[in-house]
Specification:
Function: Troponin I is the inhibitory subunit of troponin, the thin filament regulatory complex which confers calcium-sensitivity to striated muscle actomyosin ATPase activity.
Distance between the termini: 91 Å
Radius of gyration: 44 Å
GO molecular function, one term: actin binding
Strand content: under 5%
Number of strands: 0
GO biological process, one term: cardiac muscle contraction
Pfam families: Troponin
Number of helices: 6
InterPro entries: Troponin, Troponin_I, Troponin_sf
Shape: extended
Length: 178
Amino acid sequence: QKKRRAATARRQHLKSAMLQLAATEIEKEAAAKETEKQNYLAEHCPPLSLPGSMQELQELCKKLHAKIETVDEERYDTEVKLQKTNKELEDLSQKLFDLRGKFKRPPLRRVRMSADAMLRALLGSKHKVCMDLRANLKQVKKEDTEKEKDLRDVGDWRKNIEEKSGMEGRKKMFEAGE
């Protein structure tokens, strides 16, 4: 057990030492990023000095607008490049799937569409036949069944209950069932 305790104590000590080293490395990286940011800002953004006259101020505004336009154009160009590369990546990954033989099925949505609309979508202007499926069905008249006649003849439900109450009513129901 002493060996186990020593091994766990050593593991704990090594773990804490590694965490301390990682914490100091993170602090160094943060400091390096901050100095890099300060250097970049000092290089690309000179300190602003506001001129006293109105004309000089207008010229400064024009220069700033020109810089904003160039930066905006660069941003737009990089966005377009990014979109193109993303599209190329998608195409290449699709080709890779095709080469492997694994086809990724796209998620399909249910669409309610009549037969006419479906044929029109598939065939385009060539479709002229009307596919009304209900038009060719037979029309059948409902026949009055005996049950429906009995229901109509019943009339007042109270009379029906009085007739079927007692032993005589049970006897009538039993005979009617036969």
